[in-house]
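Changelog-adjacent note: as of this version, every example in the card shows the full chain rather than a window. The one below runs 226 residues end to end.
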Amino acid sequence: MVWAAQDQQKPISSESSNPSLEEKISSKLAHAEDILRQVEKEKGTLSEVEYSRMTTEIDQYEQAMKKNPDDPMAEAKLIAVMEALIDHSIQEYDHRANLKHQITPNTKRTEYAAYYKEVQKKIEKIGTCHFPRKDGKKLYGKVIVYIPISSDGNIYREDGGPRIERSSGDADLDAASLKIIEMADPFSPFTTTDPDHGEVWEIITSFKFIYDPESSYPEIDCSDKN
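Full-length structure tokens:
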């Protein structure tokens, strides 16, 4: 037996399937507004010339649509804006990717390793002085974090800032880890002789919050803010 689905909907008459002139204009203008919102969203990364050109062409498109919603020249203008936005988004993605250089505990190059140690020392001190607690009890565990730092030493926030790469399993400890990073911000500016270093260094490392009364680490002076 063959299973068959039947389309039992009545055919739509040609009269009802053709939108009115007002409906067509309204639809075209709504589409233009969607594109304009995308342009406004990208305003911060567009040059003044690009932004002005795109908004002007959208305005010209809207004016043309009000007179003739089938104007092919106006349609071409809007398509050009859409294509320019797509190209811009691709370029921005590539630019952000080229900005960054990743640093991990296994990074060998001297200046990267030294900067990693410096960031680690500052965060460990703040973490020790502000050990995570919940309801008066200390929280213990391990969490892996991602810390993007701009060349001026400030946390890079364009892509969201620090985040948890692997949770400790305790939401309170995860949140406390991110708070400790924020308390450590800013860090020292970084310099390097590496021509491919990028403008943002991404540090991926683990935080361990442990109870170790026998620790050989020197006692930390929490009154020292440096």
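Structural remarks: The chain has six helices and six strands.
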